[in-house]
Amino acid sequence: MLLAIDTATQFMSLALHDGRQVWYEATWHTTNNHTIELTPALQRAMKYAGVQPQELSAIAVSQGPGSFTGLRIGLGVAKGLALAQGIRLVAVPTLEIVAAAIPPFQGPLVAVLLAGRGRVCAQRFRWSRDAWWPAGPAEITGWTDLIDTVEHETLFAGEIDQTGHTLLDATERPIRIAPGATALRRAGFLAEIAWARVDADETDDPAAVTPIYLHQPGVAHP
């Protein structure tokens, strides 16, 4: 059984996946209460699925970009469980989780999450070999600047606030917005990605994994 933990932003998500199907999944919005909400949520997940900690064979975690507090808490718990149970860890970039839920689309995909103060963290993906693949690094930008880069029909998915929806709806550029349920970042898809990497023996060293914060090298800024 694999436990997937995503606390990268104010949207938190947990899932338990046995390699074939999801046994449990919960996704909710938190007002920066990651510390007090994660442990009880983990206990509920294990209880409802009837899973004991010793039955876990792997842990998946959202690595970022994301908020400092959210990533620190999620990675801390994931790394602690992996080391304590002696099981494998898979760290997955946050925007790859968004992309994993989106069906094939002829044009590019822009996955986004909110970066605060009117900014977004965005990354482009392209569909190839039955999956979405990064077409560039994650970047910090504003909605207007991001929209101005669109020249061909493009699908947007992820965290889109009211300002983003207003600007995306008003633009004449060829932009489509993924439905809310499809665009929601879910730990079930994090688990799917992680199982594929476990099967390919592409896991991470729990002692060496580090978070990707919104404001650090590796996340491009304008």
Descriptive terms for the model:
alpha/beta, six-stranded mixed sheet, 222 residues, Nucleotidyltransferase, domain 5, 7 helices, five-stranded mixed sheet, 2 domains
Order of helices and strands: EEEHEHEHEEEEHEHEHH
Work out the helix count.
Answer: 7
Secondary structure class reads alpha/beta
Rg estimate, integer Å: 17 Å
Q: How would a crystallographer describe the biggest sheet?
A: 6 strands, mixed
What does this structure look like?
- By secondary structure, the protein is of the alpha/beta class.
- The chain folds into 2 domains: 2-94 and 185-199, ATPase, nucleotide binding domain (Nucleotidyltransferase, domain 5, 2-Layer Sandwich), CATH 3.30.420.40; 96-183, Nucleotidyltransferase, domain 5 (2-Layer Sandwich), CATH 3.30.420.
- It is built from 7 helices and 11 strands.
- It has helices spanning 34-49, 68-85, 94-100, 143-148, 162-170, 180-183, 187-199; strands spanning 2-6, 11-17, 22-29, 58-64, 88-93, 109-116, 119-128, 131-134, 139-142, 154-158, 175-177.
- The strands form 2 sheets. Strands 6, 7, 8, 9, 10 and 11 form a 6-stranded mixed β-sheet that branches.
- The N and C termini lie far apart (41 Å).
- The model has no long low-confidence stretch (mean pLDDT 94).
